[in-house]
Design brief:
single chain; alpha/beta; Aspartate Aminotransferase, domain 1; Aspartate Aminotransferase, domain 2; seven-stranded mixed β-sheet; three-stranded antiparallel β-sheet; 14 helices
Length: about 400
């Protein structure tokens, strides 16, 4: 590899440091083992407890746990009434699921450009994309920094739109002093292993709306209810249940919920460690020529799922691809978040064209995610800093 030859000598690390990984300890293992030794492996008491505790943490009335963050987005779109012909505005700088969930319902994702300072969806760009077909907005709290919810809610009220927050990156984040999770009609979280807490795979939707809550509960279980007050027929036996619409098997198991409950107890500690690492990065990298560190807005308190730097090609004698390779050669497990959704071949085949969101496309060309997870030790953090300084100075 060219970059290995460029630097010579030893890399800053002898083993690869991943960009993210789960943090599991003995208490997590014990929590899962306890469920395995009891009666309920799924649809049991741990799921309900996890939902209650999670809703209480974020400040929402209700929470519905499902099998993945993608399932959570799908369920939220169903509950919001997204259907064929409806348009839903979201950002292209996100994982594909934020847009795919609209397609699942027969709707059309519409991409609005980003704010070049925060990389979050720009409310002014949302306004430009609203039509008579617009039904909802799915803003994504990219990297863990909340979007401009004040402006987005104003737009939603003006046009009668539903706001579904994609908070897969933002568990524990705050907007104007309030935790993300109880601020919009629905908020979706992910429990993938690289997220703030994990259930292996899993997701959850929070809401304060009882009607949405009941719909979400049914959607995750085939559209089936056993609640007698919801039956369309009366006088049936105690064995009776009804499928009232086409739902899915999106249930979370008690095994996963037990892990989630154990992880939730550590969430504040996990976030505090993430902030310590970010502070160290900011202090050491702020003055490095050709590197821009993340900007955190005053009204936001990021929970720092990702630490994304951007590369200034006018200053550095290398593009992002070469710097990516150079850092990988130093055993620093960098990553790129994200390829604009509409650049993927599937979306190109649907008729989306490049150039839709110029700010997002420019960001994609120069963004790089550095390792960030709670289990990183002091030496791990220093290795990342040393690697970035080494590579940055080489190409200056």
């Amino acid at each position: 590899m060219e970059t290995l030859a460029l630097f010579g000598g030893r890399p800053v690390r002898q083993t690869l440091l991943p960009y993210a990984r789960q943090s599991i300890d003995q208490s997590d293992i014990d929590a899962v083992t306890e469920v395995l030794q009891n009666d309920y492996l799924t649809t049991g008491p741990r799921v309900a407890q996890f939902e209650r505790d999670f809703a209480r943490y974020v400040g929402a009335k209700y929470a519905v746990a499902v099998s993945s963050g993608t399932a959570a987005l799908h369920a939220a779109c169903f509950a919001a009434g997204i259907g064929p012909g409806d348009e839903v505005i979201t950002t292209p700088i996100t994982f594909a699921a934020s847009a795919n969930c609209v397609l699942y319902m027969g709707g059309k994702p519409v991409f609005a450009d980003i704010d070049p300072q925060t990389y979050n969806i720009d409310p002014e760009e949302i306004k430009k994309k609203i039509t008579c077909k617009t039904k909802a907005i799915i803003p994504v709290h990219f990297t863990g920094q909340p979007v401009d919810l004040t402006s987005i809610h104003e737009i939603a009220r003006e046009y009668g739109l539903t706001v579904i927050e994609d908070a897969a990156h933002a568990l524990g984040a705050k907007y104007r002093g309030r935790l993300v999770g109880g601020l919009s009609a629905m908020t979706v979280f992910s429990f993938h292993p690289v997220k703030h807490i994990t259930t292996g795979e899993g997701g959850i939707i929070t809401t304060d709306d009882e009607q949405l809550y009941e719909m979400l509960l049914l959607f995750r279980t085939h559209g089936i209810t056993r609640a007698t007050d919801r039956f369309t027929r009366t006088g049936m036996g105690t064995w009776y249940y009804e499928q009232q619409f086409l739902g899915y098997n999106y249930r979370l198991t008690d095994i996963q919920a037990a892990l989630g409950l154990s992880q939730l107890k550590k969430l504040d500690k996990f976030i505090a460690r993430r902030k310590e690492i970010v502070s160290a990065y900011n202090t050491s990298l702020a003055g490095l020529a050709g590197i821009r560190i993340p900007h955190e807005k005053n009204e936001c308190e990021s929970s720092w799922h990702l630490y994304v730097i951007t590369i200034d090609k006018k200053v550095l004698k290398a593009d992002r691809a070469l710097i990516f390779q150079a850092l990988k050669a130093e055993n620093i497990g960098v990553n790129v978040h994200y390829i604009p959704v509409y650049h993927h071949p599937f979306y190109q085949e649907l008729g989306y064209i490049r150039g839709l969101c110029p700010q997002a496309e420019e960001f994609y060309k120069c963004c790089l995610s550095l390792p960030l997870f709670p289990a990183m030790g002091i030496q791990d953090v220093q290795d990342v800093i040393s690697g970035v300084l080494k590579v940055g100075k080489h190409f200056t």
